[in-house]
Specification:
Blueprint: E1 3-7, E2 12-17, H1 22-31, E3 38-44, H2 48-60, E4 63-66, E5 79-84, E6 92-93, H3 95-98, H4 108-115, E7 117-121, H5 134-142, E8 146-150, E9 153-157, E10 166-168, H6 174-184, E11 190-194, H7 200-211, E12 215-217, E13 223-227, E14 235-238, H8 243-256, E15 258-263, H9 271-279, E16 283-286, E17 290-295, E18 300-301, E19 305-306, H10 318-325, E20 328-329, E21 331-335, H11 345-351, E22 355-359, E23 362-366, E24 375-377, H12 381-393, E25 397-401, H13 404-407, H14 413-418, E26 423-427
Parallel strand pairs: 2-15, 3-14, 6-7, 10-11, 18-20, 19-21, 24-25
Antiparallel strand pairs: 1-25, 1-26, 3-5, 4-5, 7-9, 8-9, 11-13, 12-13, 15-17, 16-17, 21-23, 22-23
Helix pairs in contact: 1-2, 1-7, 4-6, 5-6, 6-7, 8-10, 8-12, 10-12
The chain binds ligand EPZ.
Amino acid sequence: MDRIKITGGAKLEGVIPISGAKNAALPLMIASLLTDETLTLENVPRLADVRQLFHILENHGVDHAVQGKRNGMDDLAGQTVSLTARAIVDTRAPYDLVSKMRASFWVIGPLLARMHEADVSLPGGCAIGTRPVDFFLEGLRALGADIEIERGYCLARAKGGLVGNRISFPRVSVGATHVMMMAATLAKGETVIENAAREPEIVDVAECLIAMGAKIEGHGSSTIYIQGVPRLHGARHRVAPDRIEAGTYAMATAMAGGDVTLDGATPQHLEHPIELLRQAGAEIDITNRGIRVRRNGHGIHAVDADTAPYPGFPTDLQAQFMALMTAGKGTSHITETIFENRFMHVQELARLGAKITLDGQKATVEGVERLQGAEVMATDLRASVSLVIAGLAAEGDTEVSRIYHLDRGFEHLEQKLSRCGAQIERISD
Ligand code: EPZ
């Protein structure tokens, strides 16, 4: 298995190109199931999760083509992918595929909407939580679907198609909002989604669906209105930049020190993390290329953070921010409100000398003078990158194992950091 070795102490100087958002690309690819015409997506990141989703979609009969390299194209640029679900030949999403990438469960919405049936394996939990899908099932039942759970599968039927309705989620769910929005585009009549997720990825998917002929309003707010249409057509759409990747490299720069421009980042999607980083002592400027992050000389101040649905502080940046706070002057309190087990990185950060105590969903981080490099293990996607961030500033070498977690969500991570001066390399055993 591959691992990553980092020798701490180097500042980061230069430009990091920000890739297309993983959490937009995945639902956008799934949206291709809603039409028999071609959906072309630009700026798709080269990630393990994207490759896994191709397998899921192939199983339904979706053809896909990836555009080859063009003259002058930077090898870190995103890829252009065309997806065509001319005919959906199989409405079953099997356990062996869904269990490898849980967002593939989201195919249930478009399959029901277009084919009026779907047999989709329950995704199961993961390292950060049980990840139930009760909101999805209640929402689809509200649109007229009959859903039975049998031997780990959701057997969903909607004879005559889905019918619009009003749905109100008990708590904000990004996945359930994506699925209900996609399903409602082909339902008869109007669907209203209340307490909808407001994440930029929801907005990106809604804009793509509108380009495909869907009638959607209110996306980005807590209430989304969808008027069903008989069919959707093909479109071309550019995947929005990855705010979590951008926030991650902003925290890496604050940790290592230096001066980095996050090229293509969207500052308005990172207002809360930018505010916290400024309080922590990073200088952050908005430029016409994106976001410029600097920290030279002075140390990092301890700052508190509570995760929350967008536009609050994103749970997907919680581990990265905690890594930064391990080097802060003072004590930081970090509360995780979205997932029940998203502190797996704590015991690994402790191996690097971090002083962190846990009390339920609250972590108390006492800053230390300097972390000490060590061998550590990645446990989930965002936890793994928090160990890389810590390793950038630790004394000596840090080796992060099980980095297949990293490859799920960070494209060309070593290249992007080493181009800015980090001493980082991938070691293949
Ligand atoms: C999406 O996951 C993201 N994944 C996650 O990113 C992200 O952390 C999460 O949203 C929150 O922002 C993708 O977009 C592919 P939720 P999702 O439904 O949709 C509970 C990453 O690192 N819930 O918003 O699965 C759930 O257990 C990943 O890129 C129910 O109880 O998250 C959680 O506690 C990790 N019942 C809370 O809601 C349901 O039916 C929010 O989860 C659905 C969710």
